[in-house]
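Entry 14. Ran structure prediction on the chain below.
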Amino acid sequence: MKDLSNLIFAGAAAGFGGAYGSILMFVVLIAFMYFFMIRPQKKQNDARMKMINQLKKGDKVILVDGLHAKIDSINDEKKTIVVDADGIYLTFSRIAVREVIPAETETKPETTEKSADSEKSETKEDK
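Output, C-alpha cells:
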C-alpha cells in the first residue's frame, strides 16, 4: 500500500496532468472509499437493524457480551428487551443483540436419543 501511494504522489508531482490530475486522483480516492468501505458497512448496518426490528418473543439470541438467552418480552417504547437466561431475567437495549439463533440449528432431543441408541448397540456388539 505504501508503494502504491508513493507511485500516485510521484505521478502527481511529476506533472501528471497538473491540477486536473490531482482532482482526478482525489475523485478516484473518494469513489474507492465509498464503494469499498462506506457502502458495505451501510449494507451490514441495514441488515442488522432489520434483524433487530424483527425480534419477537421466544427468539433465542446471542447478546454482544456472549450471553445466550431467550427473549421474554419486548418494550417498543423504550426499545428494550427482557431476556431469560436460565431463569434470570435481564433487561437490555435492543441494540445489544448480536445475532438471532435460527430454530433449525438448535439440537433436537430425537437426534441425541438416536446417537445414544447407536452407542448402546456398538457397545453390545463389542462384548
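The longest strand covers residues 68-75. Will compare against last week's run tomorrow.
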